[in-house]
Amino acid sequence: MARTSDERIRRLFAAFQRHHSGAGDIEIQWPDEHIAGFSVRMVSPRGPSSVLRVSSDGVVVTTRSGGLHGDAGESEIVDTLGIDLSQDFSWDNVRSESADELAQLLVKHMRRRMRESDPEPNTKERQAVQH
């Protein structure tokens, strides 16, 4: 079962590289090719940041409000996601057919958390997302 999980982790990492490696706000890191796990860091110029950690133990997203607006304080949201890569690419009750599909869902989740953590959201951006 560990090999299946490791292979899915590698496929998810490859999906992030294919679809998001050129994005200016996303950094993808595989610390050691012998370790089955990687992280994706997303940073907003407004301050919030979000880090996705994928390993055989699970998938966790940690989002921080950032320091752009120091007087607003800093908050942290930690999401332990219901993803078991030893089984498939599903997230809770949402069935993803591929690593590419799951990678897209995870990036959307990270961006949503960053918007929620922004102490002074851009009203136009917020309205566009809500519609």
Can you give a write-up of this model?
The chain is of the alpha+beta class and 131 residues long. The protein has one domain (2-119). 35% of the residues lie in helices and 24% in strands. The protein has helices at residues 2-20, 99-117, 123-130, and strands at 26-29, 37-43, 49-55, 58-64, 76-81. The protein is globular and about 45 Å long. The termini are far apart. The relative contact order is 0.18. The model has no long low-confidence stretch (mean pLDDT 83).
Question: Could you estimate the helical fraction of the residues in percent?
Answer: 25-40%
Look at the structure and give the mean pLDDT: 83
**Element pattern in H and E:** HEEEEEHH
* Number of helices, where a helix is a run of at least 4 consecutive DSSP H or I residues: 3
Rg, alpha carbons: 15 Å
Low-confidence stretches: none
Relative strand content: 15-25%
Question: Strands across the major sheet, in which order?
Answer: 1-2-3-4-5
Q: Tell me the distance between the termini.
A: 42 Å
The count of DSSP E runs of length 2 or more, i.e. the number of strands, is 5
Shape: globular
Structural class, by secondary structure, is alpha+beta
Largest sheet: 5 strands, antiparallel
Q: How many structural domains are formed by the residues?
A: 1
